[in-house]
Design brief:
The complex is a heterodimer of chains A (309) and B (132). With 309 residues, chain A is an alpha+beta fold. Chain A is 16% helix and 32% strand. In chain A, the strands form two sheets. Chain A has a ten-stranded mixed sheet with strand order 17-10-11-12-9-13-16-15-14-18. An eight-stranded mixed sheet of chain A has the order 2-3-4-1-5-8-7-6. In chain A, a hairpin with a 4-residue loop joins strand 2 and strand 3. Chain B has a domain of 89 residues: Rieske [2Fe-2S] iron-sulphur domain (Rieske Iron-sulfur Protein, 3-layer Sandwich), CATH 2.102.10. Chain B is built from one helix and ten strands. Chain B starts with a strand and ends in a 5-residue tail after the last helix. The chains are: A alpha+beta (309), B mainly beta (132). Chains A and B meet through strand 13 of A and loops of B.
Chain lengths: 309, 132
C-alpha cells in the first residue's frame, strides 16, 4: 500500500478563534475554509465541535475527528477501498476520498495526497573538517528568518488496545515497525515514506483514547528553536522541550494547544528502508530522549559585578 | 506581594484585587523561575477558586495553552490544553479526559476587602522556591 502519511487532520474544537490564532502563530498558512496548511499543503482543519458536517466525536475528551491519510495514486486508493470493504462500511465523497473507521473506532479517510513537492534548502552548518555548509559572509543567526512548518510529520494516538490497533495498520495497510517501546507501542512508517515514524501509539485506558500529539517537520534544529522561541514570546505554554528524541533522532519542542492536544515542532528525523531491524526497549525517561532543555529568560555576560565599575 | 495577617488572624498572601480577574474569567499567578504561573484563579461573581496549575495526568503538565487561557470558551470548565480534559470550576473534579476520577489540587482562598488571598504557609511551602 503506497500510503505517504497524514495529509490532513480534522478537529471539532471548543474555541475556534483560539485555535485559529494558535495555528497561525505556530506558522501555518490560512488557506480558507477553516484550514491551516504547511508549506507542502498538508494541513489542520478546525471547526466548532457543534458543526454538523464533522465526523462524530469519540466518547472521550479528544477533539480530533478525522485523520486523512495521503496516498500516492488512485490505484493505491482503490486497493485500500477493496481491502477495507471486506469487513467494514467504506463511504466515498464526491471527490473520491474514502472514509471509514479503524479497528479502534478512530475516524480515518484516504485520498490521493494533496501535498506538493518541496524544493527547499536544508539548514546549512559549518563543521570543522567538512566542507562549509555556508560560504564566506553568509550569516547563520537570522532572527528575522521565516520559520514555517514544512510538512505534517506524524501523529500519536492514545489507544486502549495496542495489539489490535497496530495489527490493523500493519496487516491491513502495510505500515512497518521501525522501533518499539515494549508494552507502550510501536513507531510505524507507511510504505511510501522513509521517515522513522508517521504514527506512534501509546497503550492507555479506554477513557483516554484520542490524539496525544501531532507534529510538523521544520527545516532543522535552528528553525525549530526559532519557531519555539517565538511561541514562548507570544505567551504560549511549552510542554516538553526543546530536546532530541532517541528513536527517530528528531529534535522536538511540544506546546499545549487549544486543540486539546500537544502540538510539536520536529526536525531532522531518521530515515529508514527495508534493511532496518527495529529496536525494542522498555519506555523510560532515558529512552525517551537523548537530552532535554527548557527555555529560560535571555541573559548576557557583562563586565564587573553589579555596583562595581 | 508578601504575606500579611488578615482581619480574622490568618497569615495570607494576596494574589490580586478581585477586580483584576474578569468576572467569569481566569488568571495565572505566582510565576516560577521559568516564568510559568504555578496557580490559577477563576472568578465567579464575588467567589474565587484557586487551583494548582497542573493537570493530575502528569507531574509536569501545565493546564493552559497561553498566559491566562485556562477555560472553555463558555467559561463553564477548566480545559487542559494537553489532551482536552475538562474540570469542574467549583471543585476541580475531572469530568472527561485522561485524568477522569482525579481532581485539580485546590488552594484554600478567600476574598477579603476586595482582595483575593490564599494561605501564606501553603504558598511559602509550595510555590516560592525558585520564584522570582
Amino acid at each position: 500500500m503506497r500510503i505517504i502519511g497524514p495529509d490532513e487532520l480534522i478537529f471539532g474544537v471548543d474555541n475556534v478563534e483560539a485555535c485559529r490564532a494558535f495555528l497561525l502563530d505556530y506558522g501555518l498558512e490560512d488557506t480558507g475554509n477553516d484550514r491551516f496548511a504547511a508549506l507542502d499543503n498538508t494541513a489542520i482543519t478546525v471547526r466548532s465541535k457543534d458543526d454538523p458536517g464533522l465526523p462524530p466525536p469519540l466518547p472521550t475528551a479528544t477533539m480530533l475527528r478525522q485523520t486523512i491519510w495521503g496516498v500516492e495514486d488512485q490505484a493505491t486508493l482503490d486497493a485500500i477501498e477493496a481491502e477495507l470493504s471486506k469487513d467494514r462500511e467504506v463511504a466515498k465523497t464526491e471527490d473520491g476520498m474514502i472514509m471509514c473507521k479503524d479497528d479502534l473506532n478512530f475516524e480515518i479517510a484516504f485520498r490521493v495526497s494533496k501535498r506538493v513537492e518541496l524544493n527547499l534548502p536544508a539548514e546549512m552548518i559549518n563543521s570543522p573538517g567538512a566542507r562549509p555548509g555556508r560560504g564566506p559572509n553568509v550569516v547563520g543567526a537570522n532572527e528575522e528568518a521565516e520559520a514555517k512548518p514544512r510538512t505534517l510529520s506524524h501523529i500519536v494516538f492514545f489507544t486502549p488496545d495496542i495489539e489490535k490497533m497496530s495489527k490493523f495498520y500493519i496487516e491491513r495497510l502495510g505500515f512497518v515497525i521501525t522501533d518499539q517501546f515494549t508494552n507502550t507501542g510501536p513507531f510505524l512508517r507507511p510504505q511510501a515514506n522513509d521517515d522513522h515514524h508517521v504514527l506512534f501509539m501509546i497503550q492507555t485506558p479506554d477513557y483516554m483514547q484520542g490524539l496525544e500529539h501531532l507534529a510538523f517537520h521544520m527545516q532543522g534544529p535552528t528553525e525549530l528553536m526559532l519557531a519555539g522561541s517565538r511561541m514562548i514570546k507570544k505567551g504560549y505554554e511549552s510542554f516538553w522541550g526543546p530536546g532530541r528524541h532517541k528513536f527517530g533522532s528528531n529534535w522536538f519542542w511540544y506546546f499545549n494547544s487549544p486543540l486539546g492536544t500537544h502540538v510539536e515542532y520536529d526536525a531532522d528525523m531518521d530515515k529508514h528502508d527495508g534493511d532496518w531491524t527495529f529496536r525494542d526497549v522498555p519506555m523510560s525517561k532515558e529512552a525517551s530522549q537523548m537530552f532535554l532543555f527548557e527555555n529560560v529568560e535571555k541573559w548576557a555576560p557583562g563586565g564587573p559585578p553589579p555596583g562595581k565599575s | 506581594m508578601g504575606p500579611r495577617r488578615s482581619a480574622s488572624g490568618e497569615i495570607v498572601t494576596p494574589l490580586c484585587a478581585l477586580s483584576d480577574i474578569p468576572d467569569g474569567g481566569a488568571r495565572g499567578f505566582l510565576p516560577n523561575h521559568r516564568g510559568r504561573d504555578q496557580v490559577l484563579a477563576i472568578r465567579q461573581g464575588n467567589r474565587v477558586h484557586v487551583y494548582v496549575n497542573n493537570c493530575p495526568h502528569y507531574d509536569r503538565a501545565p493546564l493552559g495553552w497561553k498566559k491566562d487561557a485556562f477555560l472553555t470558551q463558555d467559561g463553564t470548565h477548566v480545559l487542559c490544553a494537553a489532551h482536552g480534559a475538562l474540570f469542574r470550576i467549583e471543585d476541580g473534579a475531572c469530568v472527561i479526559g485522561p485524568c477522569l476520577g482525579q481532581s485539580l489540587t485546590a488552594l484554600p482562598s478567600d476574598v477579603v476587602d476586595g482582595e483575593v488571598v490564599v494561605d501564606a504557609k501553603l504558598v511559602t511551602e509550595n510555590f516560592l522556591k525558585g520564584s522570582k
